[in-house]
C-alpha cells in the first residue's frame, strides 16, 4: 500500500464508486515512534507487530474458521526481519525529508517461494522451503513485484524511470525493459498494481482498470478472476462494510453484476488491502480495520481476509498480522492459486512475512 503523491489519486477508496484495491495512506502514528533497531538487536526481542509465534511455528487461531472445509487455518512464519541493511534485515527509511518507506511488495512464485521487494536495500529476498534465503539485485525505485510463470521477477517503477523491468532470477540483471509511456500509459503515477493475466503483464490504473503491457488486447475494467469467469471490483462502504461485485467476462457494462457480495466487520474499514481470487473460484478480499481513539490515534486495528464461494457464502475469515507504522507499502497481501494467504506485516522493530493455509 502506498501513499499517493497527487491529489487526483488521493481520493482512493474514499469515493463511493466501484474500484479495485490496493493503495491507500497508512493510519497516522504517534510522532515519537520507536527508533529503528540496530543490526545487533534480535528481531525476537520484542513483538514486531503484536504477539507472534516463533519462526516456523504453526498455530490454529480461534478466529480463523472455514465452514466449507470444516477446519481451522494454520499459520507459518516465512520470515521475521529486523530493520537494517545487513543480511537477514529489511530496509527502512524512517526519518528525514523522504517519505517513510519499508519493503513495498511481495509475490509468490509457482513453486511456492515467497519473493520480498526490499527496495531500500536494492534487492529482492527469496524465501523457499528448506533453503536459506537468497538475494538478487533490484532497482531502488521499484515499488511493485510480480513473478511470472517461468519464475522470472518483474518490477514496477512508476514514478522515476517509469518502466517495468524483467530481472534475471539469479543475478537481478535487467533482462528486458517495458517503457510505460511507449505502452500508452500517460500517467504512470496513477498505477496501483502490476498484474499477471493469461501469461501476460498488465498495469492497473487508479484501482479500476487494467491496460496490457505485452499484447494488443483491449483494456479491461476490474480484476480478472483466476477461473476466468469474472471481472472483480470492490468498494469500501463506511464505516464498517465492504462490497464486492463481479461482472461476467464479455458482459456489457450496463448489465447487472453476476456476483454481489457484502460483509460487515467489527471495526471501521480504513482501506481495502487486496482483492483477488483462487483457482477454486473463491473471491478474496483483505481489509485493514482501524478504530481511532479520542486523540485521533489508532486505538485498535486488525487486518482481516475473507473469502466467498462462487455461490456467495463465506468460505473463510482469517485474522492476519495487522501492519503498524506509516511506512509506504504497495501490495502486501497475496492469495495463491491454491487459496493460501501470504501477508507482509510491518511493525516498530521490523517485518514479518506469514503464510496461512487451511
Element layout with pairings:
Elements: H1 7-10, E1 74-82, E2 105-108, E3 114-118, E4 123-127, E5 134-137, E6 144-147, E7 153-157, E8 163-167, E9 174-179, E10 191-197, E11 200-205, E12 209-212, E13 220-221, E14 223-224, E15 230-237, E16 241-248, E17 259-264, E18 269-277, E19 283-292, E20 298-308, E21 314-320, E22 333-335, E23 341-346, E24 350-357
What does this structure look like?
The protein has one domain (7-34, 57-357): Neuraminidase. It is mostly beta strands and 358 residues long. It has one helix at 7-10; strands at 74-82, 105-108, 114-118, 123-127, 134-137, 144-147, 153-157, 163-167, 174-179, 191-197, 200-205, 209-212, 220-221, 223-224, 230-237, 241-248, 259-264, 269-277, 283-292, 298-308, 314-320, 333-335, 341-346, 350-357. The protein contains 1 helix and 24 strands. The protein is 1% helix and 40% strand. The strands form 6 sheets. A 4-stranded antiparallel β-sheet has the order 1-24-23-22, with no helix packed on it. A 4-stranded antiparallel β-sheet has the order 2-3-4-5, with no helix packed on it.
Number of strands: 24
Encode the helix/strand succession as letters.
Answer: HEEEEEEEEEEEEEEEEEEEEEEEE
Strand order, sheet with most strands: 1-24-23-22
CATH fold-level topology: Neuraminidase
Low-confidence stretches: 1-24, 29-70
Note the total helix count: 1
